[in-house]
């Protein structure tokens, strides 16, 4: 995800020029109500420097099912919850706080809303406003293959995404300032590229 010299006349393929990106210092990571790759995503999130979590209402319900307690999350990073109709925490994007927005894992519902420009949850609002501010977004979409094998809280489950889910992933790929990845390994590579671009490094320990 390379950024061109901000003083040049070249385009900024992932960052844009809205606001003062040189002041931005934090990752905004939005979690939705999916259990697919949830543990892998949380492990990656906690390796990032200067992380804030943004939870949908569904995420608050799902996280404890995978042994992530909200109080324990608050001990590790700042946590913002979907408790206001207007998604008040999104306003921090306007204060040049965040240089990158991550939505992972993203349910098919969240992917559809983001792809169609619907913003009625904390994750979809932060995704939309980040795009309007030309802040790079990375989305790990859950339903990207004809067959998806996922770990539920109790067992492994095989799902077969419908054509509409697969089509929405392709629509999302066309959204400005958005990169879509399909698994944790691809997400890690994308985050590594973003860290390199920003001159940052992973946390030494996520424990």
What would you say this structure looks like, in words?
By secondary structure, the chain is α/β, with parallel strands linked by helices. 31% of the residues lie in helices and 20% in strands. α4 packs across α6. The protein is globular, with a radius of gyration of 16 Å. It starts with 25 loop residues before the first strand and ends in a 9-residue tail after the last helix.
Which keywords apply here?
alpha/beta; two-stranded antiparallel sheet; disordered N terminus; 31% helix
Strand-helix topology:
Layout: E1 26-31, H1 38-45, E2 51-55, H2 57-62, H3 70-74, E3 78-81, E4 98-106, H4 108-116, H5 122-132, E5 137-141, E6 148-151, E7 156-159, H6 163-173, E8 178-181, H7 184-198
Parallel strand pairs: 1-2, 1-4, 2-3, 4-5, 5-8
Antiparallel strand pairs: 6-7
Short description:
The chain has helices at residues 38-45, 57-62, 70-74, 108-116, 122-132, 163-173, 184-198, and strands at residues 26-31, 51-55, 78-81, 98-106, 137-141, 148-151, 156-159, 178-181. The two termini are 28 Å apart. With 207 residues, the chain is α/β, with parallel strands linked by helices.
Oligomer: single chain
Query: What would you report as the Rg, rounded to the nearest angstrom?
Result: 16 Å
End-to-end span in angstroms?
A: 28 Å
* Unreliable spans: 1-17
**Helical proportion?**
25-40%
**What string gives the helices and strands in order?**
EHEHHEEHHEEEHEH
Strand content: 15-25%
How many helices? 7
Count the E strands.
Answer: 8
**Order of strands across the widest beta sheet?**
3-2-1-4-5-8
Helix and strand content put the structural class at: alpha/beta
**What general outline do the C-alpha atoms trace?**
globular
């Amino acid at each position: 995800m390379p950024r061109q010299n901000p003083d040049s006349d070249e385009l900024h393929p992932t960052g844009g020029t809205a606001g003062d990106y040189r002041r931005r210092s934090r990752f905004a990571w939005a979690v939705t109500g999916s259990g697919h790759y949830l543990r892998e995503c949380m492990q990656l999130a906690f390796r990032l420097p200067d992380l804030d979590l943004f939870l949908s209402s569904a995420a608050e319900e799902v996280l404890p099912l995978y042994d992530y307690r909200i109080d324990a999350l608050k001990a590790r990073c700042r946590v913002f919850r979907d408790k206001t109709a207007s998604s008040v925490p999104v306003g921090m994007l306007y204060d040049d706080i965040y240089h990158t927005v991550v939505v992972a894992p993203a349910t098919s519902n969240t992917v559809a809303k983001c792809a169609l420009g619907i913003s009625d949850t904390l994750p979809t609002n932060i995704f939309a406003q980040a795009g309007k501010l030309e802040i790079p977004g990375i989305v790990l979409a859950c339903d990207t293959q004809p067959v998806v094998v996922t770990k539920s809280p109790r067992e492994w489950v095989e799902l077969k995404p419908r054509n509409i889910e697969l089509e929405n992933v392709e629509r999302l790929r066309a959204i400005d300032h958005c990169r879509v990845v399909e698994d944790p390994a691809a997400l890690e590579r994308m985050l590594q590229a973003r860290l390199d671009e920003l001159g940052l490094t992973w946390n030494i320990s996520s424990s």
